């Protein structure tokens, strides 16, 4: 019990140093402090596995943001209900009623709204309703989406033009891997060369790096290792996410 | 009948009066509508003094959360108010309108992070829920997770691994239907979990509270 209560990096201030945490926090800062006459939408886009949402927690907590993660099956009605619940207002009535309620609540808030998995909104084509909420409330809205989101949104010219700031999430680098090692492989010292190898073989996919580091910690537990370098790890696999051999042509 | 109803309200613990006032103010003040102290009083569950509401509204006024818009027709001194700054949590304010030291921020940050993270253990939650201003310790996260698990908010993804050289805390995820709203569940002094959004006791004690109410 005592071993886990002593992190390697005792409460060094959350996970602020991760590249994407800093980027998302800065994006929230820009969008919440913009000039009043400017639109207040921004987007954080990137490849799956960059750790966009995970990195967003830091900024979201700092700015006390509202957060909605859109489901792939969500209709506009479901979106409105979920957003109403997140805002703590009644999720009742017609869609128009709920949108009025949402606008009324957001118009008087100083907190930003984060809409995650925004691609689903685009696929289900209720982008214009989000624009209405934005325009009438003036609330700062940050979208999180996949790499292609900016291009997909070009079809909605009126929406696209309101996005003040497009920020790309960055793949995991060695510095990030060192931080992640403190979270997912706490108590074990991982050599930089090994971390660099993990970053390279996973293609900088934060999720896979995290899983790999976690696996290394498990192995260390089994083997009784205190530190791992390239030689110790040897030919053991790294979680690269590569397809099974059969399917590679 | 009346007695029973009163009993029902007594069996439900409400940890924060201000949250109750604030919820009503948000309700009567929706869509920029003006309201008076009496409007708020009319929606309280009884036993509340107008003076308590007035004191809180005065704090809100000093803190810039509400403004006055006029006087109730036909009255000499009943002011009308309007909500100008909205948020789900009741603002904790001193008499001069300055924010009180809010002990609930760490809890809010954990709750928000749980909604955002796919799966988490206490160590990860403590890290992701911490900001420069408000740190969440491993122990706090561990306690909160245990309580929320017991109250039915969390599903266990992988169990804790105790003992051994590298013990590992349990991994959880928030059950999607248990994302009840913006306000973080509160653990009361009696170890009950109070859902501020649904305004009810959750977990094994919920049944007790209901039985008591009948």
Total separate domains of chain B: 2
Q: Overall mean pLDDT score of chain B? A: 82
Low-pLDDT parts of chain B are 1-15
**How would you describe the shape of chain B?**
elongated
Order of helices and strands of chain B: HHHHEEHEHHEEEEEH
Describe the structure.
The complex is a heterodimer of chains A (249) and B (214). Chain A has 249 residues and is α/β, with parallel strands linked by helices. Chain A has helices at 19-32, 52-62, 76-87, 95-107, 119-123, 127-137, 149-152, 157-160, 174-184, 192-201, 206-223, 230-233, and strands at residues 41-46, 66-69, 113-116, 141-146, 163-168, 189-190, 227-228. Chain A is built from twelve helices and seven strands. Chain A has a five-stranded parallel β-sheet with strand order 2-3-4-1-5. Chain A is elongated, with a radius of gyration of 21 Å. With 214 residues, chain B is of the alpha+beta class. Chain B is elongated. The relative contact order of chain B is 0.12. Chains A and B meet through helix 2, strand 2, helix 3, helix 4 and helix 11 of A and helix 5 and helix 6 of B.
């Amino acid at each position: 019990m005592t071993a886990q209560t002593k992190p390697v990096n005792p409460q060094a201030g959350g996970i602020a140093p991760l590249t994407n945490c800093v980027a998302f926090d800065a994006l929230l800062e820009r969008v919440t402090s913009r000039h009043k006459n400017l639109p207040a939408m921004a987007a954080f886009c990137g490849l799956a596995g960059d750790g966009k949402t995970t990195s967003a927690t830091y900024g979201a907590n700092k700015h006390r943001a509202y957060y909605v993660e859109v489901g792939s099956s969500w209709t506009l009605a479901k979106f409105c209900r979920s957003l109403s619940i997140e805002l703590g207002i009644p999720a009742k009535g017609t869609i128009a009623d709920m949108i009025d309620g949402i606008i009324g609540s957001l118009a008087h808030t100083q907190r930003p709204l984060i809409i995650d998995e925004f691609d689903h909104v685009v696929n289900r084509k209720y982008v214009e309703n989000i624009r209405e909420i934005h325009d009438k409330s003036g609330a700062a809205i940050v979208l999180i989406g996949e790499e292609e989101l900016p291009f997909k949104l070009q079809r909605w010219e009126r929406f696209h033009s309101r996005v003040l700031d497009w920020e790309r999430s960055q793949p995991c680098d060695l510095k990030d891997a060192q931080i992640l090692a403190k979270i997912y492989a706490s108590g074990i010292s991982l050599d930089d060369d090994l971390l660099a190898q993990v970053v390279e073989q996973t293609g900088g996919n934060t999720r896979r790096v995290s899983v790999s580091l976690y696996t290394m910690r498990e192995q260390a537990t089994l083997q009784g290792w205190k530190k791992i370098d390239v030689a110790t790890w040897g030919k053991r696999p790294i979680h690269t996410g590569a397809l099974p051999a059969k399917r590679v042509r | 009948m009346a007695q029973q109803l009163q009993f029902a309200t007594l069996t439900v613990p409400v940890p924060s009066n201000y949250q109750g006032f604030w919820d009503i103010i948000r309700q009567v003040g929706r869509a920029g509508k003006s309201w008076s102290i009496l409007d708020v009083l009319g929606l309280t569950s009884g036993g509340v003094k107008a003076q308590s509401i007035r004191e809180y509204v005065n704090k809100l006024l000093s803190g810039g959360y509400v403004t006055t818009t006029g006087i109730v027709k036909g009255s000499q001194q009943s002011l009308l108010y309007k909500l100008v700054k909205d948020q789900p949590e009741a603002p904790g304010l001193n008499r001069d309108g300055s924010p009180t030291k809010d002990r609930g921020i760490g809890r809010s940050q954990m709750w928000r992070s749980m909604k955002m993270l796919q799966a988490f253990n206490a160590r990860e939650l403590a890290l992701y829920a911490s900001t420069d201003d408000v740190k969440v310790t491993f122990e706090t996260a561990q306690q909160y997770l245990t309580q929320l698990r017991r109250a039915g908010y969390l599903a266990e993804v992988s169990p804790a691994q105790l003992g051994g050289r590298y013990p590992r805390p349990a991994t959880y995820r928030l059950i999607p239907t248990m994302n009840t709203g913006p306000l973080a569940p509160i653990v009361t002094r009696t170890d009950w979990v109070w859902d501020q959004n649904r305004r009810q006791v959750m977990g094994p004690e919920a049944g007790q509270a209901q039985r008591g109410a009948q």
